[in-house]
Write a structure and sequence with these properties.
With about 325 residues, the chain is an alpha/beta fold. The chain has eleven helices and ten strands. The longest helix has 25 residues.
Length: about 325
């Protein structure tokens, strides 16, 4: 029998997974009863999986539980079992090292790496978009990370999310031919919703008094496709500490651009709140949509993105 990390066999992992209960809107089962299962590494991927599998009887296991910072994920025995037993694992290489390792060591079904289908944007392109607004080299120096040269936050672009849905539908169709048409029809319906959302962003941010936002960590670069310029207090890691040089640059940017709001995040509010308070600015909340919290448990990707759009329009004086 194949051995898994920590010298735990697959059968032991499955038993442990069935005994450990978890709080999630997604399935907690390991999928050992013959039903098709999808293991999704974190929330946006799980949302796509739920939409694509709707009505087919397939189960979706969310590996990053609500309220958990995705960057910090360490898989439990139960979550490793869900990944090992899944017919399809959808993840994003480079974003969650623990998931990357588990996919390499334990995944037995098909694997879908989002980076291979969503055409991620290099960080250099983000920097080129607003080089006149901020010195991005300061961010790179203060934020050690393992995400490589690409920005992993592709789900801020609804069209890239639609591309992932199409790819997942194809993977599931191969694994479960009886529901192939349903998977592809669901992906088509999701693309229609996401195309509409993309249009809402393009129209909603087209005519604004300001076009620059200051955010706590560098999770919103894909919004630059709508004409925004994004400046962050820290880089990719929300746990990083800002440098004095970066804070000084941001203060000058805020003064020059007439920025009135600094955005914090639901899971890590302190950084944005502190900076806003120090400057006497409004502290807004912009959700990176990396995961749900207790406060957003009744929402989904679409509603959170729409709420973000309303927040951006208000902060930037959009008409």
């Amino acid at each position: 029998m194949r051995l898994y990390s920590g010298l735990v066999t697959l059968s032991a992992l499955t038993v442990a997974g069935s005994l450990l209960a978890g709080c999630s809107a997604f399935s907690d089962d390991s999928g050992t009863d013959g039903e098709v299962t999808v293991a999704a590494a974190f929330y946006p991927l799980a949302y796509v999986a739920e939409r694509v599998t709707d009505g087919t009887g397939a189960r979706v296991a969310l590996l990053t539980q609500p309220g958990t910072e995705p960057h910090d994920l360490e898989l439990t025995i139960k979550e490793t079992a869900q990944l090992a037993d899944a017919d399809v694992v959808v993840y994003e290489s480079g974003f969650q090292p623990a998931v990357d390792d588990a996919v390499e060591q334990n995944a037995r079904g098909a694997t879908l790496d989002a980076t291979e289908v969503v055409d991620p944007v290099p960080f250099a392109e983000h920097a080129d978009e607003h080089a006149e607004h901020a010195d991005e080299e300061g961010h790179a120096d203060e934020d050690e990370h393992d995400h490589g040269e690409f920005d992993p936050h592709f789900w801020q672009d609804p069209i890239r999310v639609a591309d992932l849905a199409d790819a997942l539908a194809d993977e599931l169709a191969d694994a479960d031919q009886d529901h192939a048409d349903a998977y592809r029809a669901n992906a088509k319906a999701l693309r229609e919703d996401l195309t509409a959302l993309d249009g809402e962003y393009a129209a909603g941010l087209a005519d604004c008094e300001r076009d620059t936002i200051v955010v706590s960590h560098d999770a919103f670069g894909y919004l630059e496709k709508y004409g925004l310029h994004v400046a962050s207090i820290v880089g990719l890691s929300p746990d990083a500490e800002p440098t004095g040089a970066v804070l000084g640059e941001l203060k000058e940017l805020i003064k020059t651009e007439g920025i009135t709001t600094v955005f914090s995040e639901p899971l890590k509010p302190a950084l944005g709140e502190s900076f806003a308070n120090d400057l006497g600015l409004t502290n807004g909340v912009l959700d990176p949509v990396e995961g749900l919290t207790d406060a957003t448990a009744d929402q989904d990707y679409l509603s959170l993105m729409q709420a973000n759009l309303a927040t951006l329009r208000s902060a930037n004086g959009c008409r």
